[in-house]
């Protein structure tokens, strides 16, 4: 069975859930071979996780050159592995960093690229929601080794404990790939909440909140539910919440089990980033807000009354 | 500073977007087309760099004849000249072929800085900056929310957006910069700008003019294909309730019934 290369998504070695999803997907049509790229000493934190979720093999590439430059070194290593391993496909998580790496890999190995797949058959036919999820297409790569960028939550991760063989990759990065040097990483907001794109529950706030400090209401509800916090473009444009949390056409696309929109009208711009959520709940004082046209449960009312009541009700139910 | 900025004409965000029934490419005929909104931030950043450090801004686009409207917009904002790569053979090009074609045109312009935006609203790949960097062999300064050019040391530093903050990334010129929205406030074209745009130099290139192999671009050269396409099942509205003072409790009940809490 051919290998399927899975680029491990991690933060300083701590694997993201999407990695387990990709390994599960890879197992459906090949032998999952995880590719771990990181700074020296970071693999140790991912080792057990990769074994737990069924990696048959792990290519371990640790180098300061990988962590120290944008994009190009990672693409160079993976493209090199494609040359030696002749995999059936390369699977990459749909994060801002990794999709760029995926594109560079596809260019280097002269193969086709598919992004934002929400499903992938063993025949490598990918499903994508395009135009903000309003059209569903299936597509496939027709040239080379398919490079497929897969959305988080595309599949449920299934454990398949084993003992992967480890292959240490001799990391030699070309000078050309060392152009964009990362000189510092600055953490602005450490929330402790789940990643927006990976979260099972997302609570988002919009224009109706009226001020930055009112996002505390959204955060409190989110924390009660173990949710990530999102924001509409109106809210990020106003500077009420960080741009990184923006959901919508020019922000992130999310597809959680539950999406709660607080004070968001649901214009097409926002809808494009969240309409594939399984269940949508909306709280808005305007009964004409477009979000009520596609919400599963809509509450017409003042969010400043509804949200605190909802938060305390959930807390009580959890306590009871 | 010789600055190149890429722009793309896309269907209006508010238009109902569709794929062409015959060849499953984006239907650009039946909708209003506009400059990709994110590209306005790219053009603005190019103009700001020019205003701060001098130089020239060249707009590059690939697209059908009517994409010249988008070029005009960029010129009316203040760009100096434009190159329009336009050929029926390019129709249906995927991101990989598009990046190769654009890179070929851009390399003849010998830029110090190539600016692109983080994504186009029609395809939403978010990969063109990385691909241009790869094709041109230049440092990839994408996902930039702030760009600082230092002509004295011939370096560019950006704040690259990260999930919990940003990375400070530095490179020597020439570079590819990819900007995110909110990096600036794009200007509106002035009446004077609109009039001046009509007289600005515009070069139109065919695939052959640009030295492109027709078999490697367009639908013929695409490395992936759409197999099927259908509208997503419509999302109908569910239960709408007016708050009577117990709205929060009602939402909680709904969540409990759905086993979401």
Automatic annotation (TrEMBL), chain A:
Gene3D superfamilies for the chain: HUPs, TPP-binding domain
Domain Electron transfer flavoprotein alpha/beta-subunit N-terminal per the UniProt entry, residue ranges: 4-186
Cofactors named for this entry: FAD
Alphabetical UniProt keywords: Electron transport, FAD, Flavoprotein, Transport
PROSITE patterns recorded: ETF_ALPHA (PS00696)
Domain of life according to the entry: Bacteria
Primary role: The electron transfer flavoprotein serves as a specific electron acceptor for other dehydrogenases. It transfers the electrons to the main respiratory chain via ETF-ubiquinone oxidoreductase (ETF dehydrogenase).
The family this protein is said to belong to: Belongs to the ETF alpha-subunit/FixB family.
Subunit structure: Heterodimer of an alpha and a beta subunit.
Protein name: Electron transfer flavoprotein subunit alpha/FixB family protein
Organism: Frankia umida
Upper lineage: Bacteria, Bacillati, Actinomycetota, Actinomycetes, Frankiales
């Amino acid at each position: 069975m051919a290998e399927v290369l899975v680029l491990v998504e991690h933060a300083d070695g701590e694997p993201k859930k999407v990695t387990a999803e990709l390994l599960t997907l890879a197992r459906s049509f090949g032998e999952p071979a995880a590719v771990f790229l990181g700074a020296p000493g970071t693999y140790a934190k991912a080792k057990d996780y990769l074994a737990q979720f069924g990696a048959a093999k792990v290519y371990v590439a640790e180098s300061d050159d990988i962590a120290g430059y944008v994009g190009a070194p990672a693409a160079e290593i993976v493209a090199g592995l494609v040359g030696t391993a002749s995999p059936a496909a390369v699977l990459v998580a749909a994060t801002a960093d990794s999709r760029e790496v995926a594109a560079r890999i596809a260019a280097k190995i002269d193969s086709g690229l598919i992004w934002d797949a929400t499903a992938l058959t063993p025949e490598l036919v990918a499903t994508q929601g395009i135009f903000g999820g309003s059209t569903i297409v299936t597509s496939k790569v027709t040239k080379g080794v398919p490079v497929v960028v897969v959305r988080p939550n595309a599949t449920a991760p299934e454990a398949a404990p084993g003992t992967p063989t480890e292959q240490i990759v001799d990391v030699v990065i070309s000078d050309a790939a060392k152009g964009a040097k990362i000189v510092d990483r600055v953490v602005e907001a450490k929330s402790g909440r789940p990643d927006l794109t990976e979260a099972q529950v997302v609570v988002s706030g919009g224009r109706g909140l009226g001020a930055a400090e009112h996002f505390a209401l959204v955060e409190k509800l989110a924390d009660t539910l173990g949710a990530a916090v999102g924001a509409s473009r109106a809210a990020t444009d106003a500077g009420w919440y960080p741009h990184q949390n923006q959901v919508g056409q020019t922000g992130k696309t999310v597809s959680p089990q539950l999406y709660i929109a607080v004070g968001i009208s649901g214009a097409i711009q926002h809808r494009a980033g969240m309409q594939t959520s399984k269940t949508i709940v909306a709280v808005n004082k305007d009964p004409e807000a477009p979000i009520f046209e596609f919400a599963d449960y809509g509450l017409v009312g003042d969010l400043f009354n509804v949200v605190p009541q909802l938060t305390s009700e959930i807390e009580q139910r959890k306590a009871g | 500073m010789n600055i190149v900025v890429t722009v793309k004409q896309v269907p209006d965000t508010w238009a109902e977007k569709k794929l062409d029934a015959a060849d499953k490419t984006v239907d650009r005929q039946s909708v209003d087309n506009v400059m990709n909104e994110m590209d306005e931030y790219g053009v603005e950043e190019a103009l700001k760099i020019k205003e701060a450090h001098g130089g020239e801004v060249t707009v590059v686009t690939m697209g059908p004849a009517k994409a010249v409207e988008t070029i005009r917009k960029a010129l009316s904002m203040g760009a100096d000249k434009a190159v329009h790569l336009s050929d029926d053979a390019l129709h249906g090009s995927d991101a990989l072929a598009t990046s190769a074609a654009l890179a070929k045109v851009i390399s003849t312009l010998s830029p110090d800085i190539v600016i692109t935006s983080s994504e186009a609203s029609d395809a939403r790949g978010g990969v063109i900056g990385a691909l241009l960097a790869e094709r041109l062999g230049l440092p990839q300064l994408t996902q930039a929310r702030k760009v600082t050019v230092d002509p004295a040391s011939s370096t560019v530093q950006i704040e690259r957006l990260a999930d919990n903050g940003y990375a400070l990334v530095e490179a020597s010129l020439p570079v590819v910069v990819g900007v995110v929205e909110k990096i600036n406030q794009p200007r509106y074209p002035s009446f004077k700008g609109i009039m001046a745009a009509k007289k600005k130099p515009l070069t139109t290139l065919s695939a052959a003019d640009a030295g492109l192999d027709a078999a490697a671009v367009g639908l013929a050269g695409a490395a992936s294909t759409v197999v099927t396409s259908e509208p997503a099942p419509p999302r109908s509205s569910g239960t709408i309730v007016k708050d009577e003072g117990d709205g929060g409790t009602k939402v909680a009940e709904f969540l409990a019934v759905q086993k979401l809490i």
